[in-house]
Amino acid sequence: MESAAVVGGNLRLARLFHGLTLEDIASSIDRTRQFVHRLEIEQATPSAAILQLIAARTRVLPDFFSRAVAAPITEDQCHFRKHLSARVSIKHVALAKGEMFHRIVAYLGSQLELPANVIPQRDVQSFSDIELAAEACRRAWGLGLGPIENMVRVAENVGAIVTRFRGVGREIDAHSISAARPIIVLNAEERSVCRLRFDVAHELGHLVMHVGRLTGDRKTESEANRFAGAFLLPRSSFAKEFPRLRGQHLNWRGLADMKLRWKVSKAALLFRARQLGLIEESQYKTGVIRLARGGEARQEHEDRLVTPEPPELFAQAIGLIVEYHGVSLEAIARAIGLGPEILQEFLDSRTAAPIVERRSADVISLALRRQSRVQRPVAGE
């Protein structure tokens, strides 16, 4: 049967996207693990029949394997929260999902005018520099100094695309990918909205301060955490609103009220208060112990009262292409060389925009569609 030229990296990408091993693919095509490895390093050429089998196993189209790769995502572009402790195999899955999502986003960018990437790059040398960087971002993005209503929407309005990856568990928490169109990946298993908001701010910190740097070490993670705290809780506003102590004791009712207003966990409020010298180390430790003993170490009691903030931009982009260009999800996936299941993995199950009559062949501005949702400072703040 006629042989087909392939890009070995695409074979490996399709395999790793599903967390499959060389043995998994080998058993699907009745060949050896070594043969599959040779395919991936382009030391062997598969027949068209073998490509069909691998495509069916990995849910891509056979022509996906022969598509040229412009600039694949590399590990140094990824800011992994648990970079040092995560298994290598899980990192490979996360990288593969990032590359696949990156390719889909590139296609969307060719069809739509997405919000411009206005995330600045800042060099920081001290915690003071980080505070200033966070405050500068708030000013540049018109956020004022009050509570932020929706952190996901902020990130998407300034040029990032937020998503969730399945299949990586908790070994890799939220992470981000530095690219022309930055990607922020939230942990699909995290249930606390407050923690997810902090994760978004943390990843924005990496995108502001750490582009081109390997991250995951204690220093860069500490810097990103400091940025997140400073971004979500500006020091001037925080100092005014942090609830006064009751003698030497923390004001837990006041902390709960402040949490619901700022949508930041009580643990993060205590950490920020210690950073800014509003409470002593002993008071901070006492607060952390109380949260742990009360079953609030991972999820706090008020979390259920905080409105979820799901990613929006990706689903909106897909919906607009369906609406204005009159194509199906299957046709969009086919244009990228994928089966519809892979595209659907990144979409909420409710995203099923109807196919309507084609209206325009022009590039549509999704940025304009979202202008009414851009964050504004709260009046009087």
Name the descriptors.
381 residues, 434 Repressor (Amino-terminal Domain), 4-stranded mixed sheet, two-stranded parallel ribbon, 17 helices, disordered C terminus
Question: How would you sum up this structure in a few lines?
Answer:
The protein is mainly α and 381 residues long. It has helices spanning 8-17, 22-29, 33-40, 48-58, 88-111, 127-140, 151-157, 193-209, 218-232, 235-241, 252-262, 266-275, 281-293, 313-325, 329-336, 340-345, 366-369, and strands at residues 78-80, 112-113, 161-165, 175-177, 183-187, 364-365.
Query: What is the CA-CA span between the terminal residues?
Result: 71 Å
Helical proportion, percent range: 40-55%
Mean pLDDT: 88
**Largest sheet composition:** 4 strands, mixed
The number of helices is 17
The radius of gyration is 23 Å
Low-pLDDT sequence parts: 349-364, 372-381
Seen as an oligomer or otherwise, the chain set is single chain
Give the helix/strand layout.
Blueprint: H1 8-17, H2 22-29, H3 33-40, H4 48-58, E1 78-80, H5 88-111, E2 112-113, H6 127-140, H7 151-157, E3 161-165, E4 175-177, E5 183-187, H8 193-209, H9 218-232, H10 235-241, H11 252-262, H12 266-275, H13 281-293, H14 313-325, H15 329-336, H16 340-345, E6 364-365, H17 366-369
Parallel strand pairs: 2-6, 3-5
Antiparallel strand pairs: 1-4, 4-5
